[in-house]
């Protein structure tokens, strides 16, 4: 396979949705994923099972920390474009195990960047995160806002990744977009993320834990909208850009629980706990730059997205 696109982390939540679209569009796709045990690897196997039916799909099982494997993958692939989604995700786990996050998100990303340089990749899309904004008081969050005070190791590694990609753009001319993703949800969402976790426990009649007073808020963005933004980033005109991808609407934690209750038709058993270190108070995306450069506008309101997610969840439960 040559002149295709490499998707790191392509068996995960966002990655598998992206690969769905790329394959449907006839693209030659290579996925590099290590199927780690951050959550049940069988979930990722299910995510990408249908991809194996495509002749223009290649799966490489391995770790981005493995420099030799990364180089061999690039050498064999002849990629013109890399979409780098692979990372250790999650704020709280990064506080518990910061060294792992540094190894994967920094060393692993450095390996990808070096391979991009060595094998003449012309275009890189890097998945960053709204967590880089920390507890900025100004809202909505704009790409020109200061982001020098991350409040978790995860956020710090994502900001460092942005800086590393700029360095490689500056030195080697790699066209690069750093996409700051705002709380992505939808079918296949990782099981430890709030919407999936709350849905699962409410459905089962188990307790859910709400940290803080319920007034913290997030800019929840449906996965189809995120995929549309990534795809637009593949063809847009820029040299190096940092771009927010969000819904530009906020929902409080308390409202989120009420909406999930509504779509499941079940009441939550709520246990309240104090705020946790590392959790930001709110996220809220200014998407003016995304509209200008990518023609991006999220089209899935939270109620529509949650209805689709809970339907998917209930169907999945019915198949088990």
Give the arrangement of secondary structure elements.
Blueprint: E1 5-8, H1 13-24, E2 29-33, H2 41-48, E3 57-61, H3 67-77, E4 81-84, H4 91-96, H5 98-118, E5 123-129, H6 153-172, E6 175-181, E7 184-185, H7 194-204, E8 207-211, E9 217-218, E10 221-222, H8 223-235, E11 240-245, E12 251-252, H9 253-264, E13 269-273, H10 288-294, H11 302-319
Parallel strand pairs: 1-2, 1-4, 2-3, 4-5, 5-6, 6-11, 7-10, 8-13
Antiparallel strand pairs: 9-12
Q: Give the integer mean of the pLDDT values.
A: 96
Roughly how many Å apart are the termini?
Answer: 37 Å
From the spread of the alpha carbons, the general shape counts as globular
CATH-defined topology of the domain at 5-184 and 222-247 and 284-298: Rossmann fold
Assigned CATH class of the domain at 5-184 and 222-247 and 284-298: Alpha Beta
Number of strands: 13
Helix and strand pattern: EHEHEHEHHEHEEHEEEHEEHEHH
How many strands, what sense, and barrel or not for the largest sheet? Answer: 7 strands, parallel
Number of helices, counting only DSSP H or I runs of 4 residues or more: 11
Please characterize this protein's 3D structure.
This protein has helices at residues 13-24, 41-48, 67-77, 91-96, 98-118, 153-172, 194-204, 223-235, 253-264, 288-294, 302-319; strands at 5-8, 29-33, 57-61, 81-84, 123-129, 175-181, 184-185, 207-211, 217-218, 221-222, 240-245, 251-252, 269-273. It is an alpha/beta fold. It has a domain at 5-184 and 222-247 and 284-298: NAD(P)-binding Rossmann-like Domain (Rossmann fold), CATH 3.40.50.720.
């Amino acid at each position: 396979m040559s002149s295709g696109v490499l998707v790191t982390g392509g068996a995960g939540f966002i990655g598998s949705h992206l690969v769905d679209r790329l394959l449907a569009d006839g693209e030659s796709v290579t996925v590099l994923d290590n199927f780690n045990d951050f959550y049940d690897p069988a979930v990722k196997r299910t995510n990408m099972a249908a991809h194996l039916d495509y002749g223009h799909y290649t799966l490489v099982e391995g770790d981005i920390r493995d420099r030799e494997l990364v180089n061999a993958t690039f050498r064999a692939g002849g990629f013109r474009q890399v979409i780098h989604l692979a990372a250790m995700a999650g704020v709280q786990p990064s506080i518990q195990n910061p060294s792992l996050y540094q190894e994967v998100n920094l060393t692993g990303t450095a390996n990808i960047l070096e391979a991009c340089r060595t094998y003449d990749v012309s275009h890189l899309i890097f998945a960053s995160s709204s967590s880089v904004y920390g507890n900025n008081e100004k809202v909505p969050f704009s790409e020109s806002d200061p982001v020098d005070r991350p409040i978790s190791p995860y956020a710090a590694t994502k900001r460092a990744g942005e800086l590393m990609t700029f360095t490689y753009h500056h030195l080697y001319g790699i066209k690069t977009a750093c996409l700051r993703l705002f709380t992505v949800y939808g079918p296949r969402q990782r099981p430890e993320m709030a919407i999936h976790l709350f849905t699962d426990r409410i459905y089962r009649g188990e307790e859910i834990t709400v940290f803080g007073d319920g007034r913290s808020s997030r800019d929840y963005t449906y996965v189809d909208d995120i995929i549309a933004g990534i795809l637009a980033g593949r063809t847009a005109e820029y040299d190096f850009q940092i771009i927010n991808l969000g819904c530009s609407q906020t929902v409080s934690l308390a409202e989120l629980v009420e909406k999930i209750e509504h779509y499941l038709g079940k009441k939550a058993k709520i246990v309240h706990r104090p705020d946790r270190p590392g959790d930001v108070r709110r996220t809220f995306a200014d998407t003016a730059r995304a509209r200008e450069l990518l023609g991006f506008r999220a089209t899935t309101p939270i109620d529509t997205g949650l209805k689709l997610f809970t339907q998917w969840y209930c169907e999945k439960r019915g198949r088990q």
